[in-house]
Amino acid sequence: MFEKVTHELTQSVCNNDGESLSNLFADNGVYHDYIYGSFKGKKNIKLMLNNYFHRDAKNFFWEMSDHIFREDIGYAKYMFTFTSKIPEYLGKKVVVSGISFFRFKFNSIVEYSESVNGGIAMVQLGVKPEKMQKVFLKWFKRSLEDDLNLRNFYESNSNAENK
């Protein structure tokens, strides 16, 4: 079941099929994208694909492997590539690898997130270091907002160093 879902998810993204992508998710499911942030609900997940992913890139290829699934949680390694449509980086090709995390309820995705080094993508695009720093800080703040455990861990370790 899990490998079939990951294949359908990656193909839906590559083919700009927001309907198929959103149908993999529970009604209140969340897609946490490392670039664009979190999108909750089928309507917003569909909009994310059409209004962000395929607005800014083309020639998608996404493949998942090394699947691990237990109870309601799944992980898979992935390779992902695209060509930028953003005027500043037009035509630049990006290749990254990462790890996907899935949480399921009743065979629907209730949460999708990923761990990937976005800096590798930015270097391939030619993003200036000053802009990278701003983006990384935004991603860091978002990760603390989205993950209570991470925020608590960060705060407890930051306070310990400042004592």
Plain-language structure description:
The protein has a six-stranded mixed β-sheet. Helix 5 (129-146) crosses helix 6 (148-161). By secondary structure, it is α+β, with helices and mostly antiparallel strands. A hairpin with a 3-residue loop joins strand 1 and strand 2. Helix content is 45%, strand content 37%.
- Could you spell the SSE succession in H and E letters? HHEEHEEEEHHH
Structural class: alpha+beta
Measured as a percent range, the helix fraction is 40-55%
Shape: globular
User: Rounded to an integer, what's the Rg over CA atoms?
Assistant: 17 Å
Low-confidence stretches: none
Spatially, the strands of the biggest sheet line up as 2-1-6-5-4-3
Q: Indicate the CATH topology of the largest domain.
A: Nuclear Transport Factor 2, Chain: A
Give the helix tally. Answer: 6
CATH architecture descriptor of the largest domain: Roll
Largest sheet: 6 strands, mixed
How far from one another are the termini? 50 Å
When the domains are counted, the total is 2
Q: Could you report the average pLDDT, rounded to the nearest whole number?
A: 92
The top level CATH class name of the largest domain: Alpha Beta
Total count of strands: 6
Question: Which band does the percent of strand residues land in?
Answer: 35-45%
Write a compact overview of the structure shown.
The protein is an alpha+beta fold. It is built from six helices and six strands. The protein has helices spanning 2-14, 18-23, 42-56, 118-125, 129-146, 148-161; strands at 25-33, 37-40, 57-70, 73-84, 93-105, 108-116.
